[in-house]
Amino acid sequence: MILVSLWIIAMVILSAGVVVGLASLGQPAPAPNVIVILPDALRADRLSCYVPGSVQTPHIDALARDGVLYRNMNAQAAWTKPSVATIFTSLYPSTHQARRPKDILPDAVLTLPEVLSAHGYRTAAFVTNTNLFPDLNFQQGYAEYHALDPAETTWRHDGQKFYQEAALVNEQVLAWLNAAPQQPFFLYIHYMDPHRPYFQHPYDGRTCYDEDPAHVAAISAAYDGEVVYTDEHVGQLLAALKRLELYDDALIVLTADHGEEFYEPLTV
Question: Domain 6-254 is classified in which CATH homologous superfamily?
Fold first, then answer.
């Protein structure tokens, strides 16, 4: 995915005023807004900016063309909690210790939003994955941490609600952006749509929650539909940033916490 070390980002941001100021007769440049977009369980090989013959993802591709596309990145865990903890602390799971379902992110670790908040950033997050909710202490450093209640979605599988879909996430994010947020800001947006269960699009009440290896082609196709849906809503978010004149000068990072597997053979 499009990913750089977020701690390198922090160092660049916090030194940018000095560096740019030298080129502008001592006038420090405004610190850039930072936006992290994280679709859960999004595989790189299902994005056409990586594999042209795969799922068509024109909006993510456009973001890649506007920036830097990284091709050799590795998730530090195969599920959300330890991976996201690593992304925002720059620590291995063995160090930050948020590894098991009931583990809490320790207060002692220093998170990127804590660093940026201490340097004048307004920090906000819109998170749909319950593994990152405040009871697990992932709100560290955020002035606003919106843990989006799955019960508020109309999408369900066998009567159970899992997460708020990207359309609902965008509604809340765009309301926040339209309220003219204090700048500079750090904004973290976590979409869940590529994660199981896979909903049909347009949503008609059907899902694919099949675990049978014999049905892997249908499972994979349902996942691809979720990737297309996610790309569309990433595109709507980017269009809104452009409309609000927040795109060109922002530092936008799109990454994933992990991928998804469809019974591929193990390779070493």
Answer: Alkaline Phosphatase, subunit A (3.40.720.10)
